[in-house]
Structure prediction request, 639 residues.
Amino acid sequence: MSPLGDILTIQLVLATLRLATPIALIALGETFSERAGIINVGVEGTAVLGALVTALVSYFTGSPWIALIAAMVAGGLAGALHAVWCIRFQANHVVSGIGINILVAGLALFITSSVWGWRGTSASAPMISTWYITTAAFLIIFASQVFMFRTKWGLRLRVVGEKPEAADTAGIDVHRTRYIYTILNGVLCGLAGAFFFNSVGRFTSGMVGGRGFIGIAAMVIGNYSPIGGLGAALLFGFIDALQMRLQSYIPSQFSIMLPYLITVIALAFFIRKANVPAALGKHYVKQ
Amino acid sequence: MKRSALLLKGSSLAHELGITALSILLAFGISAFIIWAAGFSVSAVFINLWKGAFGGKLALGSTLTKSTPIILTSLSFLFAFRAGLFNIGAEGQLYIGAIVAAVVGAYLNLPVGLHVFVCLLAAGLAGAFWGWIPGYLRAKRGVNEFVSTMMLSYVAIGFTDYLVAPRGPLHDAKYWANQTARIASTAALPRIMRPTQVSVALIIAVFFAFVVWYYLFRTPAGYELRSVGLSPPAAEYGGIRIERKLILALSIAGLLAGLAGAGEVLGTHFRFIGRFSPGYGWDGIAGGLIARAHPIGAIFAALLMGALRAGGMQVQRSGAAPGDIAAVIQGLVIFFIIAPTLIRVLIRWRKR
Prediction:
């Protein structure tokens, strides 16, 4: 059989859908919070936290479903922390996100060492099929598209990120809206983290490996819409699936860097700045 | 976006130092709680942390060795930050500088003195090139440099690892490990605190802290760079060519990180080893933030990072707790330092 026929199979399509899932979830979460005006580059760390909490809870309770919920709660808490820092303490959004990433990276090593005695790796624990999460992700993304552009709540969300003064005048609570959607972003990243755990059944500190940042890239390429983000995530999922297949043909160090290289190239060519929320990253002080 | 939020507006140096000190204290306090909650001895951890970082000549040498690259990566982060950019890719730029330093050091025959200089120059330029790419993409195509520098880090780490892997072109056939041949003795930076690994790289790093300070705060070009960071529209109105400043800022950031990699190869390991950096590039982000983007402050922030790394290893060896508690402390310090109004709010609560 020719190498090409070996690579392009139905398995590749399924792998694309599977690998696109966490990227699509993170892109969706970031779309929500950035539409409300809050940049969160801590999505990478939040996903790591989600994966770690899934491993901890699944290991100690034996229930991967409770672990799934716990991951979303932990992600939501990380989102809340980011929101408090950005809104209440007026931290620079990007800097606060970096803080989350560094703090979680440290915690992940410390906790795995303390609990399992291995640096950055958990013991294996009960898992669920990732297809549950993939299916849920697609449903959530399509629902979000309708929510964001066809409902009054979606309109309110977009006004808060676009013209917070106008939103305020119209009686929308700007800060509360931003808290809600930044927490929602965290919940979705926590779910993405649970995906990473459930794809192998244990936690390793490198398992997210920059896919949080690729999620942000997917949001940018998808032009701040849930469906657009999904489209870009599918592209990255395909690249990821392809690189795994290519490992038997080219040195693994090469194929491993492929998704990151493609992300930079994709950003350079697909960039559109049309839908960047006008008040993105700005602190809103009520007059 | 206002980057100035990190640099407290209109506050004195003493005030900023006070807030920084309080943030560090607060971080240690919360870490103590975490250590206690995880069931370890707080005093044993802190004693070993101190012993590993400053208890004797070997410990101090370990701290200084680890601080050296972090000074340069901190400068790398803050230089771009001053121009309003986030260079999250110092880790990759460090690897690119390191591999070039190793190649020039191992395969070029040059006299003593000149050889080291050529190695440093080549490494700096290679790092600058790796920073130029995201700078160009940002200036010309509007590509978010936060994502692109991060992605290019992964590319650099993978690519250099491929070069020195057993099937790669730069692999040293004498050993099984992913590494290059040893550099020539003419390319090595002298050790200055035997038997520790502290080398002239430390002096170079401190020197560059002063160079960056001078450039940013004492030259017109540095003033222009900072004004781009503070307010791009005002800078453009003032006749500054913003695109060129953005590209320059990320290129220089790459150069500084590239030098960090060169220092590791020429002063510590004497060869390039695949994935050798324990995260000095990421530490630079922390260092730059803790220094509140001040070049001289970066020396002390890097010293804190290096001390935490050296101390963390001693905590691990002593068995008091996992050494990674140092990374947790680092994360907490950043978290308190980056919220300008947090400490003020806390102080106000106490007064009430």
About this structure: Residues 174-200 of chain A form the longest helix (27 residues). Chain A has a mean pLDDT of 92. The CA atoms of residues 3 and 249 of chain A lie 9 Å apart.
